[in-house]
Specification:
heterodimer; A: 73 residues; alpha+beta; 434 Repressor (Amino-terminal Domain); 51% helix; 16% strand; B: 298 residues; mainly alpha; 2 domains; 11 helices; flat
């Protein structure tokens, strides 16, 4: 089971927001946003909610659990 | 490049050229002093005093040049996006060369007192070796000043404050380089019979390599304190690195204890603590660098 996300997709929906802009908005480094997008780092609940709010989407749309190809939102 | 950066670069270039002249003067002065400073010398010739003034001026110029290069390098690395190893390696060399100017002065001061009693040829070799490092740094510095476009002066602190992760990564590459260099240098006396007269230089090199990563990270921490010092991923990386370092040092200590009691083997004897510091530094910085894409980035 792993955590997947649609940060990249929603960034582009939000006026092609850059990783740096999102990072500045939620108070982390660009490297952290990059690592979350790539699934290399699992954010805390607080950071996940901040990202979702900045991207104007509910957190369960931005992040979802995936197991054997199935998504659990 | 703005007017201020242009002036800074011109100033640094002039200092660099003066430093090169100073280094050549120093080599000439060392050759002369090496020739006359022997136990059979009865009266010190007045020329030695005049030479000493020249040496002091050369060291002063070289020290200011190193400081200028440090400011220049910090401004460059604060914008670094690639070639982290090269940037970190250059920074380590520059700081080491700068601190060793103090060592030059100390060695020369000691020689002035010790030449009467014993052979000081080893100290001259150390001075030539360190001068070689100064020369390399001075020439490379001039090349960089000439070739690299200089970012605006005011951006250094703000770049550190707004670090998007590159500086954090660079600091751990500096730690990794210093750790690996320290682990190599600490083994020199085990591999070759290092004469006592070289021990001070050996210990000084180890001290610089041990202090540099901690001082750099401390400064980064202090400047970043104006904003958020580390974000949650960086904290997780630091925690991961520290755990790996703890596990390796614990295992290392256990192995050492077994070797000491079963085989009577004692590694690094009096320098065991320094060895442990470099081992921890290497494992810690290496782990953090790996978690930040060491294998993909360089």
């Amino acid at each position: 089971m792993r955590l997947t996300n649609k940060i990249r997709e929603f960034r582009f929906q939000n006026g092609e927001m850059s990783q740096q802009t999102l990072a500045d908005a939620v108070g982390v480094t660009r490297m952290t946003i990059y690592s979350i997008e790539k699934g290399k780092f699992i954010p805390s609940a607080l950071l996940a909610f901040k990202i979702a709010r900045t991207l104007h989407h509910p957190v369960e749309e931005v992040f979802s659990l995936e197991e054997d190809g199935k998504h659990y939102e | 490049m703005n007017e201020q950066s242009r002036k800074f670069r011109s100033f640094a270039l002039v200092l660099g050229i003066l430093s090169l002249v100073g280094i050549l003067y120093n080599v000439g002065a060392y050759r002369y002093l090496q020739h006359i400073l022997v136990p059979s010398l009865q009266v010190i010739p007045p020329a030695v005093d005049r030479i000493t003034i020249g040496l002091a001026l050369a060291f002063f110029t070289l020290a200011i040049y190193h400081l200028t290069l440090l400011v220049f390098t910090l401004r460059l690395v604060s914008h670094l996006q690639t070639r982290f190893f090269l940037g970190a390696f250059w920074l380590v060399l520059l700081v080491t060369s700068g601190v060793l100017i103090l060592s030059d002065i100390t060695i020369l001061h000691d020689q002035g007192k010790e030449y009467i009693y014993w052979d000081i040829s080893g100290q001259w070799n150390m001075l030539y070796g360190i001068t070689g490092l100064h020369l390399f740094v001075a020439v490379t510095g001039l090349f960089l000043l000439w070739k690299q476009p200089l970012p605006p002066t005011a951006s250094l602190f703000s770049k550190i404050e707004q670090d998007e992760g590159a500086l954090f990564y660079l600091l751990h590459i500096i730690g990794l380089i210093c750790g690996l260099a320290g682990l190599t240098i600490i083994n020199i006396p085990e591999l070759i019979d290092l004469a006592d007269r070289y021990r001070n230089a050996w210990l000084l090199a180890l001290s610089i390599l041990a202090a540099l990563p901690f001082v750099s990270f401390g400064l980064y921490w202090l400047i970043r304190k104006r904003g958020p010092a580390l974000d949650e991923k960086q904290l997780a990386d630091v925690g991961g690195g520290a755990t790996a370092a703890l596990l390796v040092s614990f295992t290392g200590l256990l192995l050492h204890l077994i070797m000491q009691n079963v085989q009577q083997i004692i590694l690094h004897d009096n320098n065991y603590l320094i060895f442990l510091i470099f081992l921890q530094l290497t494992v810690y910085a290496g782990t953090v660098a790996l978690r930040n894409g060491l294998l993909d980035r360089n």
